[in-house]
């Protein structure tokens, strides 16, 4: 009976069958039919205010019939509408599908908008992260829940997200994501954001073990996202972790340092950010030789800390050299390492060096001799 009606030219009969099929949740039967009246019927129902399901059926019809341009445009329109009843997850799904349809489309006016669709999806994903962060916060209040409700609606602009949510709630990692999404690169702002990210890990960690785990995971996670971009300033990150981790320079907003990073943390950090131990030594040596920070140049505790870290890393390099297959590789790495540890040996031999620093210098000198053997 249904097939007989759908094979007829009676438009009203088609509409009646479509309505009956919808009451039976048999939308696939409508989409699979060859009826020439599907689009007209769905548009009429939409214009009559019948509800969201008719929009969904219409874009699915467009997609199934190969009208990818119409499907992409409708999906984009649905994602951007001001209907507060539509959640953010659904909007992201619409944008994702709009991108797929646009990629399948031959209409250049649609394909040229793919990047714009991707940009909007990126913004929506940032908004989703903000919503999740506020909703999962241990201190989530009724006020926070109201913000979550607002975020679970129309897609906002990056500026609105930054000023209304990211900055007030100090969502530093999301701020970095937002700056990257917007293509906003100002070195000062990136450094400030990274400073906040690192400080957060130190102030929220309950103990040394938790700090090492949280900090390495955070740095590793962000490195995996921004590794090939200017949004991961590796040397700045290493310098600040050394400074804050030593109990030294901790920033204007922090009153005291709660935990000290053990030297054993740094080989783990290097693995997380694909940095060789020798390259780490170069950064530490540059930081120490630059003399821009009085913590390293005039404070015995700071000097002892960074020398302990260098000693740990140099020992790690020696173990690596012992397992290197070729003499050429060993020589090159050993010579670089010797260059990087030399400033620390010289400082430990200074007459003003503390006894602890002198003892560390003695151990470094022993490693220097071992490295010299590899360098020949």
UniProtKB/TrEMBL annotation:
The molecular function GO annotations come to: structural constituent of nuclear pore
User: The Nucleoporin Nup133/Nup155-like C-terminal domain covers which part of the protein?
Assistant: 2-243
Q: Which Gene3D superfamilies does UniProt cross-reference here?
A: Nucleoporin, helical C-terminal domain, Nucleoporin, helical domain, central subdomain
Please indicate if the UniProt record lists Transport as a keyword.
yes
The answer to keyword Nucleus applying to this record is yes
* Keywords annotated in UniProt: Nucleus, Transport
Protein name (record): Nucleoporin Nup133/Nup155-like C-terminal domain-containing protein
């Amino acid at each position: 009976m249904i097939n007989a009606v759908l094979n007829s030219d009676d438009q009203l009969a088609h509409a009646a069958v479509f309505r009956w099929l919808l009451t039976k949740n048999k939308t696939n039967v409508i989409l699979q039919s060859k009826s020439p009246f599907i689009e007209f019927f769905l548009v009429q129902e939409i214009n009559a205010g019948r509800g969201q399901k008719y929009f969904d059926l219409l874009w699915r019809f467009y997609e199934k019939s190969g009208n990818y341009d119409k499907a992409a445009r409708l999906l984009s329109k649905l994602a951007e509408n001001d209907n507060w009843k539509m959640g953010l997850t659904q909007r992201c799904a619409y944008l994702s599908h709009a991108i797929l349809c646009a990629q399948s489309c031959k209409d250049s006016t649609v394909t040229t908008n793919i990047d714009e669709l991707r940009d909007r999806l990126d913004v929506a994903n940032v908004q989703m992260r903000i919503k999740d962060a506020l909703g999962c916060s241990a201190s989530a209040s009724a006020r926070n829940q109201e913000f979550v409700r607002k975020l679970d609606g129309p897609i906002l602009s990056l500026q609105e997200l930054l000023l209304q949510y990211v900055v007030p709630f100090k969502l530093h990692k999301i701020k970095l994501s937002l700056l990257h999404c917007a293509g906003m690169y100002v070195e000062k702002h990136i450094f400030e954001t990274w400073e906040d990210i690192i400080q957060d890990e130190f102030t929220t960690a309950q103990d040394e073990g938790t700090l090492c785990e949280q900090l390495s995971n955070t740095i590793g996670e962000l490195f995996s996202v921004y590794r090939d971009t200017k949004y991961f300033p590796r040397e700045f990150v290493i310098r600040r972790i050394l400074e804050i981790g030593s109990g030294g320079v901790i920033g204007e907003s922090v009153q005291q340092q709660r935990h000290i990073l053990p030297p054993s943390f740094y080989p783990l950090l290097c693995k997380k950010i694909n940095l060789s131990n020798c390259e780490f030594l170069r950064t530490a040596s540059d930081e120490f030789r630059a003399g821009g920070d009085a913590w390293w140049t005039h404070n015995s505790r700071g000097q002892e800390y960074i020398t302990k870290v260098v000693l740990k890393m140099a020992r790690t390099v020696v173990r690596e050299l012992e397992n290197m297959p070729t003499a050429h590789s060993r020589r090159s790495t050993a010579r670089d390492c010797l260059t990087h540890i030399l400033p620390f040996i010289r400082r430990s031999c200074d007459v003003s060096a503390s006894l602890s620093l002198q003892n560390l210098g003695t151990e470094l000198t022993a490693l220097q001799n071992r490295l010299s053997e590899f360098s020949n």
